[in-house]
Every structure is written in structure tokens, then in C-alpha cells.
Amino acid sequence: MSKSTLAADTGTAEPKTLVESAYRNLRRDIIEGRLPPGEKLRVEHLKDHYGVGAGTLREALSLLIADALVVSQGQRGFRVAPVSIEDLADITRTRVMLESEALRQSIAMGDDAWEGDLLAAFHRLSKAEEKRIGIDDREEWEERNRIFHEVLISACPSRWIKHFLSILYQQAERYRRLSLFLQPIPRDVHAEHEALLQAAMERDADKAAAILGEHIMLTFRSIEAIPREQLNHPLAA
Hints:
This protein is mainly alpha-helical. It contains ten helices and three strands; from the N terminus they run H-H-E-H-H-E-E-H-H-H-H-H-H. The longest helix is centred in the middle third of the chain and has 25 residues, at about 85-110.
């Protein structure tokens, strides 16, 4: 089983193997902050918590290393990868550059079916935004937010740009969860998405790219407003 297959399958489909199940459960707990950045991941303890053997858990941790969510410390085992403002700044700059270009190409190439898919994705995202309260609701919102951004650039013909963006989106996920959970600065995320949709439907590539860049940058600014020592603390359930 390849890591890329697992990374692409973090939605609602049932896991097919014990490794995939352990991978998804560990990934969820890292993304949600229940396993905070820097925490030591002791195989002998975690295997019982996740109900798998030590070998299975190590395979899952190896996949998470490939996702850059876990780091290996040689003979000292595994830790949750740290987070930092510097890391997020790099992710943000690269994502703005690539996603803005992908959006421009998608607007130029998108047909009526693309418009319909975009409207449908926005509608589903709006429904999730209305009820984003508990953990399950946040999971639903995160999934629909990902789909909305994917549909926005889906008409871009470059598979490599979309591949690199999927990696950057996953890397930004922990930071985005912190921003949504702690809400360090006031934001109307629904209005941001609505403005982005409107510009895309009007086929105004310059306006859409500017809105998208600001939308992504706002997450960076919100994380910047969080005290640095709080970045590595576990989030409450």
C-alpha cells in the first residue's frame, strides 16, 4: 500500500487495512491536536490505544513521516513534527504562488460543468459553515473546504501543480485547525469563500487570484497572532 493512496483517502471511506486504520487515526489525532507538536510517540503505549500491533503502528508512523507529520529520531523513536511560524510562512508563500496560478488557468479553461461543480461545492461548504460547532462538524467543514478549493482549480491542466498543492494543503491543515479553533483574529470565512466564488464565476482571474491570496494569508496572520508557546499545546476536545 503506497503512502500516496492513503493521503488521498482521508475522507469518509472505510479503511481497508489495519495499517490504513492506524494511519488515519493517528493522523486525525495529530491534526486535531490531541497529539500535540513535539510529543513523543511511544509505540508500546500507542499500540494498545489504537488496538494494533507494534509492527502495524510502526508502518503507520512511517507513512506519517512521509506526510511530514511525524519525525523519526533514530534509536530514540518517533515524535509529532513541530509547528512554527517560519514553517507556515514558507508553506503560505508557496501555496499562494502556486494556487493563484492554478486558479487563473482553471478560470481560463473551466466549462459549464466546472461552474456547476463549483456552485455545488460552495453550497455544501456553506451548509457545513452554518453548523461548525463540535469536532464532527469541524471534520465535515474541513472536508468540504478542501473539496471547494480543489474544485476551484480542477480545470487547471497541470497535474503537477495540483499534486504539489495537495501536499501544501495537507501541511497547512494543522495550522488551519489552530486558526479555526482558537480564532485569534476576527474572520468571516464564509464571506471570503463567497467573494472567491463570485469572482471565479465572473471569470475575473485577477480579482479571484487577489481574493484567494488574501484568503490564504489571513490564516497565516491569525496564527501569527497566537502566542508562540501556545502553538505546541494540545487543543481541548
